[in-house]
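Dig into this one:

. . .
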Amino acid sequence: MNSLKYIALNLLMPLLISLVFLLLIMNGAKIPGIIFSLTPYIFYAVSAMILWVSWEFNRNRFIFIIIPLIIMHIGFQYLSAQRATDLFLYSSLLYPLHIILFLFLKERGLFSIWGIFKIVFFVFEIAIVLYFVFYPSAALKELLEVKIFAISFYPLKDVTAIIGILTVLIMGAVVVFNRYLMYNSTFLVIIITFYMGLFFLKTPHANEISLLAISVIIFALLIRESYRLAFYDELTSMPGRRALVEDMAKLGRKYSLAMIDIDFFKKFNDTYGHDTGDEVLKMVASKLVGVGGDGKAYRYGGEEFVILFPSKEVDESFVHVDALRQKIATSPFIVRNKKSSKTIYINISSGIVQNSQKDKDPFAAMKRADNALYKAKEAGRNQVIKG
């Protein structure tokens, strides 16, 4: 279960983008008309950037998410009133479900077997919607326009309102319980923004602005995702070596630094397998990110981690690192296989130092911390030694 703090942090950016565009809609009378006349061109420009970046970085789910928005935008502008109304109906029903589906489908390349399956499904989905737009079915429309609630959600139909409520509840649960918080929180805001644009359809420019807002939210997510890939470790979700180098360049005149290594990790991998070893790494990482003393933990490589303590004396940092060591040592780890399960305990060793005038840069301090770590290993492991 994700903490409220991290949920709020991940919701902040997409919500701010959505709220900015909502303010544009609500204050439309005070804004020069040229701004709204440029909206379609800005939308197409942002969509083109999303398509290009998604292709370059192999984030193909965004291609499947932005193309329906482009089709909707074109349809609402250029189709006849009746066909645009039908497109509105089918889009309001299917697009939120479409978003959830492509959120959970893994990225496996556009031209892999799964990628081709997604393309075929996507083309079929678009073709079905366009078929019923150009060749309406009275029976289908009557079914979808059935009255369920006593209140009106106009211009949304009651079936659309049910799907909207369900998709928001599903995404809300996913945001709370699923660890891919950056994606899930953004997709939740996208769905809400999409429905708000449809609900306020009669407000001038509301639908156009909402589609533009969604495209900007998606583009912002792509940028955040690119940053995450560059600076965060994929397995443990903690900052990686590149982030460590960046943050070391920002350190002040006083800091302390700890090098941490999992004891007997190679032997553990050989005994229980690399998959279980990965779970150990994730467990240890989850403990390290909770270090106190304003420390920040990084995965340095393999089973090695680094913790930076800006502006902290080594004695104060030692207390927090040793508390982590004890916490990890007393946390049971269950190894499961097909026939049985076994409870084991993981230990870590650490070397910790404070920077000195002799250190040319933080890498020199890291070298001393690594030497202290080696001494901790020689002294019997499962301990923290000051350098």
